[in-house]
Design a protein that fits this description.
heterodimer, A: alpha+beta, Alpha-Beta Plaits, three-stranded mixed β-sheet, B: about 725 residues, Dimethylsulfoxide Reductase, domain 2, 27 strands, binds iron/sulfur cluster
């Protein structure tokens, strides 16, 4: 059984937003809502300035608070690590949205159900990578299977010091960051 | 977009609002278990959201374009598209599109539109063009174009007898650098620029904001180079995205780049840091160069540029450690201060001293494989009777937009009475909008060919609605990078409304003008087939693959068996240019301090967002959504001192009293105190483009002044000063 993960190499990200638009078109994401985004953090004062670009998306947590807090079982976790929402079971109560520390979910105004990143599960089934990964101009997004020791994500995880977002939340994300500075 | 809980709460409120108006159709279809059959196909073509023209594959489901992805075999995209390319269908499905040919039965500038047939619209144009030719000669009709389809219009004008095909891409954009590099190396840096960024060990960006200009494959190479450890110097008054990756950010005082370059060159020749063998073998004029630059010390340059002298020395010594794998990026939009060809010369000289022209990790030589021959046996166009409009500039190799405009106003050296604006927002792209309007008022015929009703259409007599690139064939894209590539554009869906492709309009109009001999093919497929046949490429195969590349046996770099050729007067790299001296110009660039902003004013700088192409994409749903309006970047300290708050709306007034639309203020540490910056192309004043209407400010409306480059007629546009006032 694969264990899907994404490594985001922030040193490479150039903030071009190709990933954001590709995701929206791939997944027919409703207007003014996003499954992924690129956050820009600027520190320092002129002329000593530093900037961090941080692509963000659902962390597909191993310890997923959205799943635990969902009263209907609509939010669930697959064995391969992907966290999904079963639209038919979702009653739009927003418990998952409140529980997620990463702002990764929203209600789809078209059907009232919770909506989120699926790691482009439908593409994975076709042997492709998630849309954001395929289009990323700088190859900052790397996707793969942690159970395959030959996969690039496994190799990076073995060799590099990776970070996760809001570690103190104890969510055990499947999205890892390679960055020069500590995450703020 | 941030991670705070506060933002989460905001988001939740929006979503709650949305839930109330949710339409349950989706659920009910699902409940009935009906899932309509999907008819899907994947059709290759190439993008026209910008001039990079990336090869792509369109996924079409039930007749609708649902996704665009890069074609892995195309060298411009390598399987990836930028944000704009990904949003291409936003242009196709834009509800505001021009839908029918229209005649202006009101006045120019205050139009009343009448829907007409294609026959009537083209008949109207043909009649006017025939009259103009009879009265003033064929040169009196001119073209201003941008984009792939422009080549058909250029061909039509040639057949008609006019060489006056202009493009802002020369005088308003990359003309200065093309001339500056050609004067030095005998060739320009090419498009895409022939730079080996991925293998570079030292990269210098002077005002080039890679990443914010999302020139696809080049951005890919740039990041690859950085990831492999290349050192990066970013010279920019603004902390660009690229500056965020830099080893050294040099926040230079705007307008003083030549001072920095000359100081670097001086240090290199003084300390003998140049590539000696290369210079001895391939260049002339080192002695004269040394003499000319000797007064430009780092201390002197530091006073001009406000970059510390020790940093100037350190950066150039480091640079020379990595020669010849150094890329001094030639830039693209280089029409800044009117001395731009000379600045480009200085950059070319620096490149030569590093020995990086024709070297791995520097500049590469494009493939020598022959391109695709033209359509066979086309009649040759009539001999030009009068000179094309390139003004008084010896190095204006093309007719220039600004000469055309001036001539249209003055009637000298001959009258110009007809303009065709193809896919080109003439008011947003040319400096000094009043002059453009004055010129248009002198015309007997003004034609606009476009997809969307941006404001310049108001000045047209006739509008020809073109279909988008996803609905049409165009001429072939022949890419000459390290390999030769041929990419096809083909319709992935049928044209919507009554829109038509340019090749069709041009052919019909040509026939109406009595020029049928120039159009011996019945349609574009026949035309393309004949061109491809000559290179033994099967049309059907290209349609299926999208791109075909030809492997090159030639080496892109200098080796003992691959000696370079320099197409200059001397046949060598010219560090010192006798040709320039003979024309009365500086043989080695000199520095002249530009006029600085008066008290209370800022220099107006402008640039790009990775989410938009100039003024053309602001109305695109999927791009508009992410960047709806431009912002005015101002140094945070200055903003505070002036009593402005981040996020408030302000208005700009320039030195000539020109006033902008309102614009949102962005107080930031990422810019110097003496300049302000905005993304180019906003502030659309046409109600017809509903999303773009009145969003942000138009930089061009504030560029009333421009500095002409005396070498090639470029229009330096960073010579305007603005003050900021509260929104009234
Ligand atoms: S596509 Fe890649 S480089 Fe561009 S913003 Fe997204 S993660 Fe960053
Ligand atoms: S760089 Fe982007 S907009 Fe330009 S042609 Fe490529 S995909 Fe299209």
């Amino acid at each position: 059984m694969p264990r899907y993960a994404m490594v985001i190499d922030q040193r490479r990200c150039i903030g071009c937003m190709a990933c954001v638009v590709a995701c929206k078109r791939e997944n027919n994401v409703p207007e003014e809502h996003y499954r992924t985004r690129v956050v820009e953090i600027v520190e320092g004062t002129f002329p000593k300035v530093r900037m961090e670009l941080r692509p963000e998306l659902c962390n597909h947590c191993k310890n997923a608070p959205c799943v635990y807090n969902c009263p209907t079982g609509a939010s669930y976790k697959k064995e391969d690590g992907i966290v999904l929402v079963n639209k038919k079971r979702c009653v739009g109560c927003k418990a998952c949205i409140a529980a997620c520390p990463y702002d990764a979910r929203f209600i789809d105004p078209r059907n009232g159900a919770a909506h989120k990143c699926t790691f482009c599960e439908h593409r994975i089934k076709e042997g492709k990578e998630p849309a954001c990964v395929t289009t990323c101009l700088s190859r900052a997004r790397i996707f793969g299977d942690l159970d395959d020791p030959q996969s690039i994500v496994s190799k990076i995880c073995a060799e590099k010091h990776l970070r996760i977002l809001i570690a103190e939340a104890g969510t055990k994300p499947s999205v890892y960051y390679l960055s020069l500075q500590p995450l703020t | 977009m941030s991670l705070s809980r506060r933002d989460f709460l905001k988001l939740a409120t929006v979503a709650a609002g949305g839930t109330a108006i949710s339409v349950p159709i989706f659920k009910s279809v699902m409940a009935m278990g009906k899932k309509p059959e999907t008819v899907a196909s994947n059709i290759p073509t190439f993008c026209e959201i910008c001039f990079w023209n990336c090869g792509e594959i369109a996924r079409v489901e039930n007749g609708k374009v649902v996704k665009l992805e890069g074609n892995p075999t195309d060298p411009s995209s390598r399987g990836k598209l930028c944000a704009r390319g990904n949003a291409g269908m936003g242009s196709l499905y834009d509800p505001d599109r021009l839908k029918h040919p229209m005649l202006n039965v009101g006045k120019r500038g205050e139009p009343k539109w009448k829907k007409v047939s294609w026959d009537e619209a083209l008949g109207f144009i043909a009649e006017k063009m025939t009259k103009i030719k009879a009265t003033y000669g064929p040169e009196a009709v001119a073209l201003i174009s941008h984009g792939t389809g422009g080549s058909f219009w250029k061909y039509l004008l040639k057949a008609y007898g006019s060489q006056n095909s202009t493009a802002p891409s020369f005088a308003q954009c990359r003309g200065p650098r093309d001339i500056g590099y050609t004067l030095t190396f005998g060739a320009g840096p090419g498009s895409p620029e022939q730079i080996d960024l991925a293998n570079s060990k030292f990269i210098v960006l002077i005002g080039a904001h890679l990443g914010e200009n999302a020139h696809n494959s080049q951005v890919q190479d740039f990041v690859e180079g950085i990831a492999r450890g290349a050192k990066l110097v970013v010279v920019d008054p603004r902390f660009s995205t690229a500056a965020g990756k830099a080893t050294w950010w040099l926040p230079i005082k705007p307008g003083t780049d030549i001072a920095l370059l000359l100081a670097w060159i001086n240090i290199i020749v003084q300390e003998k840091l140049y590539d000696k063998e290369y210079i001895n073998k391939y260049a002339i004029g080192l002695k004269e160069l040394k003499e000319e630059v000797k007064t430009y010390t780092p201390e002197w340059a530091s006073k001009e540029t406000e970059i510390p002298a020790d940093i100037i020395v350190e950066t150039v010594r480091e640079m020379s450690r990595y020669k010849p794998s150094v890329v001094v990026h030639p830039g693209r939009h280089t029409a800044w201060y009117g001395d731009d060809t000379q600045r480009s010369r200085a950059m070319a000289i620096l490149t030569a001293l590093m020995g990086s022209w024709g070297r791995e990790g520097g500049y590469y030589f494009p493939t020598k494989v022959a391109g695709i021959p033209e359509y066979p046996n086309l009649p040759s166009p009539p001999e030009p009777q009068r000179l094309k409009l390139s003004g008084d500039w010896p190095y204006a190799v093309e007719a220039t937009t600004t000469s055309l405009r001036k001539t249209t106003i003055t009637g000298k050296p001959y009258p110009v009475k007809g303009w065709i604006a193809y896919d080109c927002h003439i008011l947003k792209t040319l400096p000094n909008q009043k002059e453009t309007i004055e010129a248009i008022k002198n015309l007997d015929l003004m034609v606009v060919v476009d997809v969307l009703p941006y404001a310049h259409i108001d000045w047209a007599d006739v509008i020809l609605p073109e279909c988008t690139y996803l609905e049409r064939y165009d001429d072939l894209k022949v890419g000459k990078g390290k390999v030769l590539s041929v990419t096809i554009r083909q319709p992935v869906v049928q044209p919507m409304y009554e829109s038509k492709p340019s090749w069709w309009m041009v052919r019909e109009l040509g026939i109406k003008l009595g020029l049928e001999a120039y159009f011996p093919y019945k349609d574009i497929e026949e035309y393309l087939k004949a061109r491809l046949d000559a290179k033994s490429i099967r049309f059907e195969e290209l349609k299926e693959k999208g791109t075909i590349t030809f492997p090159d046996t030639a080496n892109p770099f200098i080796t003992s068996g691959n000696e370079p050729e320099f197409d200059t007067d001397s046949g060598k790299i010219e560090l010192y240019s006798k040709a320039l001296k003979e024309q009365g110009f500086d043989p080695v660039p000199k520095y002249k301090r530009p006029e600085m902003p008066p008290e209370g004013y800022f220099r107006l700088l402008y640039g790009r967002s990775p989410l938009h192409t100039f003024s053309r994409t602001v109305n695109n749903q999927w791009l508009w959504e992410l960047y709806k309006e431009n912002e005015l970047w101002i140094n945070a300290k200055r903003a505070k001192a002036l009593g402005f708050k981040n996020g408030e709306y302000v208005v700009l007034i320039n030195q000539d009293g020109a006033r902008s639309n309102r614009i949102k203020l962005k107080a930031t540490e990422r810019i110097r105190e003496d300049c302000v910056y905005m993304v180019h192309g906003f502030g659309h004043n046409s109600k017809e483009t509903k999303k773009a209407y009145k969003k942000g400010a138009d930089d061009q409306s504030l560029i009333t002044r421009y500095a002409i480059d005396p070498l090639m007629g470029g229009t330096g546009m960073r010579v305007n000063f603005v003050k900021i006032i509260k929104e009234a």
